[in-house]
Amino acid sequence: HMLDEATQTNWNGILGRIELRTEELFGIQGVSAGPVPGDPHRLRIHLYTADAPVARAGAYLYLESRALAEARWAGSGFEFVTEPAAPLWDEFHPTLLRLVMEAEIGGVIARWDGLVALRDFRAQDGHFTINGRRVFLRGKHDGCVFPLTAHPPMDEAGWEKYFAVVQAYGINHVRFHSWCPPEAAFAVADRLGIYLQPELPFWGDPTKPGVEAFLNEEGRRILIEYGHHPSFVMLSIGNEYWGDSTPRPRM
Question: What confidence score (pLDDT) does residue 247 get?
Fold first, then answer.
């Protein structure tokens, strides 16, 4: 990963599309989506924006071409209340909805258009549940080992091939050992109904100078960039954090 060669090699550099573009200073930086606890039919959308108040905003949720729900502005985002018959997302029925939003921020109209879903994944009474039903995670470990290319796929075709093999073995959950996959992985997992667990890119001693601040900011960036994907069900702070076993005097 970023610090050593313990798995494949040092993971450094830039992959995928690289571009330089001009944008307005104020806009929607990213979106995260999740349910009101215990009610997958109430969808909360959080907007990550620049440091400027949102003057006005509107949002629409669509199932194919049909408007599914009316949004209510809730201070930092929206809340949708959908009908009880609205389709929920899980590994067997990965139904996706289109979210379209516009917000006036700093005098500029910003727009966000992407896919989200109704789903409630949580730990409940010692078990994982999806939409109130107990789910068994048949998972695999992915240590970012891609020997033919030395890097993970950056396109959806590569991840469609990867997840097709995963599903052929009856696996419904992938843990990304101390790394976070690219956008293409989340998009394909959304369509196929795969539960994903990205991790912050670290193992070792978190008390080293600068480590905690970096991980906090990296976790925030991951949530901003990928937090709207229904396949993104868990986030780990990393792998094998080292502790200090030295006895401490009692105060």
Answer: 67
Residue 56: its pLDDT value, please?
A: 85
Encode pLDDT of 193-212 as tens digits: 999 999 998 888 878 888 88
Which token pair is 209? 């100078």
pLDDT surpassing 60 at residue 2:
no
What global pTM score does this model have?
A: 0.90
CA distances from 131 to 67, 123, 178, 189 (A): 22, 11, 27, 18
User: Distance between CA 212 and CA 92 in Å, rounded?
Assistant: 38
Residue 13: phi, psi to the nearest 5?
100, -170
Token couple for 148? 């033919």
